[in-house]
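re: ur question from yesterday

yeah so i grabbed the chain u mentioned. its 342 aa long if i counted rite. heres the sequnce exactly as i have it in my notes:
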Amino acid sequence: MKASKLLKLLGALFAFTLLAAACGSTATDAVDEVTDAVDGDEDEAMEDDEASHSDLSVAVVAPSASDDVAFTQSMIDSLGRLGIEPQVTDGTFVVEEAAAAIRSFAEDGTDVVIAHGTQYGGSLEEIAPDFPETSFIWGTSADNLGLDNVFAYFPAADQGGYVNGLIAGSIADGGEIGVVGPVEAGDAVAYIEGFALGAESVGASTSIVYTGSFSDVALATTTAQAHVDNGVVGLTGTSQSMVGAVNIATANDLPWFGTQSNTEPWSSDLTVVSQVYHWDVVLADMFASIEDGTFGGEVFELTLENGGLVMEYNDGFDLDAGIRSAADDAVAGIIAGDIATQ
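ran it thru and got these C-alpha cells back, copy pasting raw so excuse formatting
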C-alpha cells in the first residue's frame, strides 16, 4: 500500500474508533469499514486506469484473421484484457494493403496504430515520420526504427519454446518431433530454436522445415503430413497457417505444442501446452507513456519473468506429473538465468 493510502487508513481509523466508542460499535467494525473504503478507492483507481486507456483510439493492422488462434488473435485478446476494443483491419498479408490501412488510420486521427507484423517495418519507416502526433506500435521486432513515435515489441519466444520442447521431448521418449516453421524470421525462429534446445535437453531430436509462408495453410498441412510419414511422434509449429498442421496432428493422434495463442480450440484432446503471448503486459506501459506525451522511442520484450509469456496447460491432456514438474523447474531456471534458451 502506498504511503498516502496508509496515512489515509490511519487517519480514518482514528476517526472511526472515536465514532465507534460514541456509538457502541467495535474497533473491529471501524477497521472493516475503513479497509473497505480504501479497497474501494484502489478498485476505483484501477477502473480509472482502464478508462484512461479506453479513451485512446486504437487500430490494429494484422496479417491474418482476428480469430486465427495464433498471431493476430494474441493481440486482439491482449487488448481486450486492457478493456480496449480496437478498430481492426485484418487479413492484410499483402504488405501494400497493410501500408494503405496503416496510413488511412493515421490520416483519420487515430491515436495509436498497431502494425502487428514483422513484414510491415519498411512501410512503417516511410509512414510514421508523416504523422508525428500518432503513436505507432510495431512488432515483432527489437528495433523501433530510430523513430520517436514508434514503439517496438517482441517476445522472447525461445523461452516458452524451450519449455514446450522439453515437454515434447519427454513425451517422445527418444523419438523425433516434427516442426513446421513459416518464414525464417521474427519470433518464429526464436520459438523453433528454443524448442529444439528444450527437446535436446532430454535426449530428443527435432526435424525442422520452414515453408517460406506465414499464411499458406495448405503448405503447412503437407509439411506436417510429410513429418508424419517420416515417423515423428509429436508436432509443433508457429504462425497463422498452423491450423493445417494441427489438423494433421489430430488426425494422426499426435500431441501438439502451441505458441502465440492457446491452440486448444483447434485440438482440445491433443494440445498439450501452449505458450501464450500476453501483449497487454507491455501495451499497458506503452499506453501510459502515450498518455504522458511520449509516443515512441522504446522497445519492449515479453518474457516468462514479466508475465508476457504464459504457459497454459490443457487439463484435458493427461500429462505425466513428473514431466509437468520438470517443466515448472525449467521455467524457474529460465527466469533465474540458469538455463540458456538460445
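noticed a couple things. Residues 45 and 51 are 10 Å apart (CA to CA). also The longest strand covers residues 271-277.
anyway ttyl
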